[in-house]
Amino acid sequence: MAPAAPASYSIPQKALHWLMALLILFNLIFSDAMGEVAEAYERGKVPSPGDLTFANIHADVGIAVLCLGLVRLAIRFTRGAPPAPAESLRSWHSLRIWRMVPSMPCSS
Ligand code: HEM
């Protein structure tokens, strides 16, 4: 049976939300090294150690986002979440976000 909808998000849910937002923003801003490494390998060159480090950080952060998204889903299914306002765009917005979160780390 689905849990009764709580009146608000819990502190761990809010913390996960903002942590994921920061990590996604980080990866959107710091993605250049990934391109440099990919280009170096395509040209048969060795990427610089700095680019390799930042590329690894990009991949690790992306995988962390995927894992944190799974934790958020698990909490949502066990604890529940406040209902979205009826007839509002917010429920469509959250559906799109939930489709985007796994697709960003998985599509790279
Ligand atoms: C929250 C997750 C992620 C976000 C927001 C993100 C974001 C980005 C962005 C904005 C770019 C630049 C795209 C461009 O310049 O056209 C990029 C490139 C790249 N990302 Fe990610 N990424 C994420 C996760 C990952 C993961 C998990 C991996 C691999 C393990 C990855 C591998 C790559 C690679 C290889 C490129 C370079 C592609 C190229 O230039 O050919 N990303 N990423």
- The proportion of strand residues reads under 5%
* Category from helices, strands and their pairing: mainly alpha
Radius of gyration: 18 Å
SSE ordering: HHHH
- How many helices? The count is 4
Spans of at least 5 consecutive residues whose pLDDT stays below 50 are: none
Question: Tell me, what's the shape?
Answer: elongated
As for the number of domains, it is: 1
What does this structure look like?
This protein is mostly helical. The chain has one domain. 74% of the residues lie in helices and 0% in strands. It contains four helices and no strands. Helix 3 crosses helix 4. The relative contact order is 0.17. The model has no long low-confidence stretch (mean pLDDT 89). The protein binds protoporphyrin IX containing FE (HEM). The site of protoporphyrin IX containing FE has 15 residues, from helix 1, helix 2, helix 3 and helix 4.
List strands and helices in order, with pairings.
Layout: H1 11-29, H2 32-42, H3 49-79, H4 89-107
Helix pairs in contact: 1-3, 2-3, 3-4
Bound molecules: protoporphyrin IX containing FE.
Protoporphyrin IX containing FE binds at residues 24, 27-28, 31, 34-35, 38, 58-59, 62-63, 65, 104-105, 108.
